[in-house]
Design a protein that fits this description.
The chain has two domains: 183 residues, D-Maltodextrin-Binding Protein, domain 2, CATH 3.40.190.150; 123 residues, D-Maltodextrin-Binding Protein, domain 2 (3-Layer(aba) Sandwich). 40% of the residues lie in helices and 22% in strands. It contains twelve helices and 13 strands. Helix 1 packs across helix 9.
Length: 329
């Protein structure tokens, strides 16, 4: 327990909280009637952590209980997710992470648990994945970027750890971009610094992670990888706009909430409806607009389908053994 970082957030015991959802549920008794722990498998202060802590107070009110946030970082999020999978399936432990980057981590370095056993509670928003470039290179779209790799003017491409290696691999397999080396960075900050300094000519990152660098003139957006576009960069063209094949299932980072395998459906429903009320509240939507973190609720089925699609489609399109080799270079 001493390795965890806790934040105790008091709930408000209002009788009007989540009317119609609290009551006799599977296993007997009211749910919830005790503290709910939300595991964040990343360090305190990161993107996932900030969002969870922002919504913890209103979620506490909506569920009429306490929400306790605990950070369990390590092993590319596998340590925290592994802890979630081992918790009792009673609805009192949930976790927040995006299924794309964590699944890629699990494919490359398989953990001792099955991520697809997790139960989706909700998806709560997304960030688009983007390609950015050094402004001094004056890259004009994907055609120009790919041409410079073909001419061997550019050789390296950067990204967040092994997480965005699959995107770079898609560029090579689907878009015929012959980059030579993928450079791993530990976060958006180091990626922005690498682009600004010319250490790498281009990189894959999230729109929220690139926002400050683009605003300061230290990076240019080459393309948005999801055909839905970017709320952070609404004027930026998508890869589809530029005539390239759609890769939406890896083109955005879907923020999701999960529960252990075999958590009862009725308890997941209570949690999901509490999240919906929280995410759609004026308070959270105002924060989302101010912070550049778009929040949008979708239910358990959407979360489960997103996870299943990643695990079925990524191995079909990219050789996972090749990903492991690239990650080890």
């Amino acid at each position: 327990m001493d390795r965890r970082t806790y934040l105790q957030l008091a709930g408000v015991g209002g009788a009007a909280s989540l009317a119609g959802c609290l009551g006799e549920l599977t296993g007997g008794g009211d749910f919830p009637d005790g503290t709910i722990t939300c595991i964040v498998p990343f360090d305190e202060g990161g993107g996932s952590d900030v969002i969870v802590r922002q919504m913890a107070d209103p979620l506490s009110e909506n569920l009429d209980t306490n929400i306790e946030v605990t950070n369990v970082p390590g092993a590319g999020a596998m340590r925290g997710i592994g802890q979630l999978t081992s918790e009792d399936a009673d609805g009192y432990t949930i976790g927040k992470f995006n299924p794309l980057t964590t699944s890629i981590q699990a494919m490359i370095e398989p953990p001792d648990f099955e991520m697809t056993d997790l139960e989706g509670v909700a998806t709560i928003g997304y960030n688009a994945v983007v390609v950015v470039a050094d402004p001094e290179e004056e890259v004009e779209g994907m055609d120009d970027l790919i041409g410079r790799y073909e001419d061997e003017e550019f050789e390296t491409i950067g990204g967040l750890g092994v997480h965005y290696l699959v995107h770079a691999s898609f560029f090579r397999e689907l878009y015929d971009m012959p980059w030579d080396r993928y450079i791993q960075y530990s976060g958006a900050g180091p990626i922005n610094e690498a682009i600004a300094s010319g250490e790498v000519p281009a990189a894959v990152t999230s729109d929220a992670g690139a926002a400050s660098a683009v605003e300061s003139g230290d990076a240019d957006v080459v393309a948005v990888l999801t055909s839905q576009g970017s709320e952070v960069f609404p004027d930026a063209e998508t890869v589809v706009d530029q005539g390239y094949e759609e890769i939406d299932f890896v083109g955005q980072v879907t923020r999701s909430v999960w529960a252990p395998h075999e958590t009862p459906d009725d308890r997941i429903e209570v949690l999901s409806e509490g999240l919906q009320e929280t995410i759609e509240s004026d308070e959270m939507q105002a924060w989302a607009d101010e912070s550049g973190n778009p929040l949008e609720y979708n239910g358990p089925d959407h979360a489960n389908e997103t996870l299943e699609e990643i695990w079925s489609d990524v191995p079909e399109l990219v050789d996972v053994d090749d990903l492991r080799d690239e990650a080890g270079d």
